[in-house]
Amino acid sequence: MQTQRPMSTVTPTLDGDVLVALASAPDVTFTTGQIERLLRLGESSKGSLTGIRKVLNRLTTEGVVERQQVGGTMAYTFNSEHLAASPIRELARLRATLLERLEETTTAWAVPPVFGALFGSAARGRMGTESDIDLLLVRPVEADEEMWDQQVLSLTAQVRRWTGNDADVLVLDESEVVANPVDPVLVEVAVSGLPFAGRATWLRGLQARHGRR
């Protein structure tokens, strides 16, 4: 799975990338050029204008996309009433679903993390097909080590089943993070990571206080 190309789990073609762009903003009307810029900025595809136009024509024929003329330009909108709309939207939001599962799973732990975040290429939307899912978990001071390790091992297996990707879990003790919240990896997590456990602003708060010393 590639978080920036969620539709590639079922189709590696440009059709999936265009559908994600449209389904992620179902009430917005896009021109072909706007879709091409969205795909390029999101690094999800390098489709040409000609290729995107062909995809839009096919999706319009299928009824998944609606077309209208705006001035001298054709514009396109995702058809939310199509029978396929719901599963398409579910595929389009795979990264959000991953974060929800991570939150639900770690919240239910006997010893939940002080903080948890998805980071690295999965958070930045730059995954390759063999990329790991990078996770930071901050272990509370009072955690039972054996129980904690079992929880992390179980999560690693779950992430593999959910995504098809290996999980690379970085575990840090709460005391380590509090003592040095400006470690380069923690700075990266604060800047581009996606929190799923604990208070979302916990790490940034530590870094802000560290900077005021």
From TrEMBL:
SUPFAM superfamilies: Nucleotidyltransferase
Signal peptide segment: none
Residue span, Polymerase nucleotidyl transferase domain: 117-149
Domain of life of the native organism: Bacteria
GO MF annotation terms: nucleotidyltransferase activity
Protein name per UniProt: Nucleotidyltransferase domain-containing protein
Record bears the keyword Ribonucleoprotein: no
InterPro entries for the chain: NT_sf (IPR043519), Polymerase_NTP_transf_dom (IPR002934)
Transferase listed as a keyword: yes
Keywords, ordered alphabetically: Transferase
